[in-house]
Specification:
7-stranded mixed beta sheet
């Protein structure tokens, strides 16, 4: 990556000073929300609202122009109308602002003239070393610097980073974080990619130490050869999950009107992902489930998984979901089955795999069963359904303590055996026992299919790492 572009991206994601050009006190203006989001995100460094018609914006001293700002500026967030954008960009160049975000729309996505203006502005900015995100984007979220230009409520902080050629899909990201508590380190909405492309973001996040898993939503990769090179390099260090849109004629037409994307051949892109080691998936929300498992769970040595549940139906459906994704369920050895029967009543089903332990001798026997399974060399990962249990005013203290100890023991399996554990529970995922599992980063889902998909991601990335070794 060009040193000047890296300097711009560092300034965008870790700015020590931010100017919001177009900041407003008018709730109807986009600049009002941008300023408010920055304040409510807890940005602690210097913030400069810029608006020639205001003395203060939301309680912060305002300046008439970028040129009037007294200090140095790392990041300029531009939310003025399209006609004013060229003037602001040239002011940023003269001020030696390091990086920018142009949220304003009205360029390549609307007309030929807009495309020509966008191209000339980008060339001028790049020559000066002022690389900007956009135009026609929602901007970024950076948990490291508390920079937020798009979320009304903040997502939890964590090690997943997401780069998207759609700003609005940041909303889906937010929904996923709230539904399952996923932690986000960085989000970037690419927009029209005049200066900084999807590939540039991938390369930057691939080198970012705070990012453990990279997710990409792409409509047009632009330079396919460079995408292949970067994806190969990123996936050698951390999982790269890709959702590619524009695979149908109608979707391609929508992509062109959305961000002026030129959508390429889908089968070629699919082959490129396989060659590079990127994991492509066709359900956007499920990608976040996969990412959470990849962030924290140990990688399996192979694709051999055991399903352990006290629900026979879960055993059947989980086994079917795994088999459809190429995950094997090897039969337990005679020796292991004998040990498992020691923790079950006489009328229990044969513990072959899946292992239906509805007839276990006690709740404590569940952890004994899991330990037996985890010790087997031919088992690389486990899908299980531990009982969460609800605490109420009538729950006895000794029962609370017993449930907590069981949760602590089960959630320690990945650490003790070096094998991934993916869990499910049919009830609402909340309560003290659930929080113990979450503190150990055990992924939990409400159905067997999602468990199988999360395990598939772990198996797939493990294969990729072995292939690259």
């Amino acid at each position: 990556m060009d040193d000047r572009m890296k300097q711009s991206l560092d300034a965008i994601f870790r700015p020590r000073s931010v100017a919001i050009v177009g900041a407003s006190n008018n709730r109807e203006r986009w600049g009002y929300g941008t300023m408010l989001n920055m304040l409510e995100a807890g940005y602690r460094d210097t913030l400069y609202p810029v608006n020639p018609n205001e003395q203060q914006v939301q309680g912060v001293r305002c300046y008439p122009s970028i040129s009037d700002v007294p200090g140095e500026i790392d990041l300029a967030v531009i939310v003025v109308n399209a006609a004013a954008v060229p003037v602001v960009i040239r002011e940023c160049i003269r001020k030696k602002v390091k990086g920018g975000i142009v949220i304003t729309a009205g360029f390549a996505e609307v007309s030929t003239e807009g495309a020509e203006l966008q191209k000339s502005l980008a060339e001028e900015a790049k020559q000066a070393g002022f690389y900007f995100v956009g135009p026609n984007c929602w901007g970024i979220w950076s948990s490291e610097a508390n920079v937020n230009t798009l979320f009304w409520d903040l997502p939890p902080k964590g090690p997943i980073s997401f780069v998207s050629q759609s700003g609005s899909l940041g909303e889906y990201l937010y929904i996923a974080t709230q539904r399952c508590g996923y932690g986000i380190d960085k989000f970037a909405s690419c927009g029209n990619q005049a200066c900084i492309t999807f590939n540039d973001f991938l390369e930057y996040l691939g080198d970012d130490l705070a990012t453990r898993v990279v997710i990409g939503y792409v409509e047009d990769v632009g330079d396919g050869r460079r995408f292949l090179e970067i994806a190969r390099r990123v996936s050698a260090e951390k999982p790269l999950l890709i959702y590619k849109a524009g695979t149908t004629r109608a979707a391609a037409r929508a992509a062109r009107s959305h961000t002026a994307a030129l959508v390429g051949n889908d089968s070629i892109f699919d082959a490129a992902c396989r060659q590079a080691g990127a994991i492509r998936w066709h359900d956007f929300m499920e990608i976040f489930d996969m990412a959470e498992a990849l962030c924290y769970q140990p990688l399996p040595r192979g694709n051999r998984v055991a399903v352990v549940s006290s629900a026979g139906g879960f055993c059947v459906t989980a086994a079917e979901a795994c088999s459809r994704m190429g995950i094997e369920l090897p039969e337990m050895s005679d020796e292991a089955q004998a040990m498992l029967r020691g923790h079950m009543r006489g009328f229990a089903p044969p513990p072959v795999n899946p292992i239906d332990c509805i007839a276990r001798k006690s709740n404590e026997s569940y952890i004994d069963i899991l330990d037996v399974v985890a010790r087997q060399d031919y088992i690389d990962g486990i899908i299980a359904t531990p009982h969460l249990g609800r605490f109420s005013r009538t729950t006895k203290p000794e029962d609370m303590i017993r449930r907590i100890k069981l949760a602590e023991s089960i959630s320690s399996i990945p650490e003790r055996y070096g094998k991934p554990l993916v869990c499910a529970n049919e009830h609402e995922l909340k309560g003290p026992v659930y929080e113990i599992y979450k503190s150990k980063h055990i992924p939990f889902f409400d159905n067997p299919g999602d468990c199988a998909k999360a395990m598939y991601a772990l198996v797939k990335y493990s294969e990729i790492r072995r292939r690259k070794a």
